[in-house]
Amino acid sequence: MAMQKSATLAFLAVGATTLIFIALVSAALVTNKTITTTGTIKTVGVGVYWNSACTNATSSVDWGTLAPNQTAIRTVYVMNNGTVPVTLSLSSGNWVPTSASGFLTPGWNCTGYVLGKGLVVAAALTLAVSANITGVTSFSFDMTIAGSE
Fold first, then answer.
1. Domains recognised in the chain with CATH numbers
2. At a CB cut-off of 8 Å and minimum separation 6, what does 131 contact?
3. pLDDT at 31
4. What's the confidence (pLDDT) of residue 100?
């Protein structure tokens, strides 16, 4: 039994020495080179402003008092504040009252427009009132201007 223990300890000692030797040899064959990297993170984003310098941001449009068969126009400036060109689109939702969406038609002149990064475009928002509007005396809804890659 003592002989077996001695042989096992000798085997473990040789194994440990071999691993240390392999680690030292492996370490001697390694070299390092650090390289600097740079890059840009792709972002998509648009901002909406009242002025062409894009310093007066807007989050609402007041259409005022409109008459049947009238179209109102409000000019805003859309800036691509992302890092890639975007294609612009407009959508609406959250109509109050919901029946207003049947009589009021929002629109603009920039659907499908490709806006380069950092560039600004004047956008004419429109709201057309149907000649047959009934039952709507006041309204609200959300307009969403989106830029997609």
1. 46-148 (2.60.40)
2. 68, 69
3. 77
4. 93
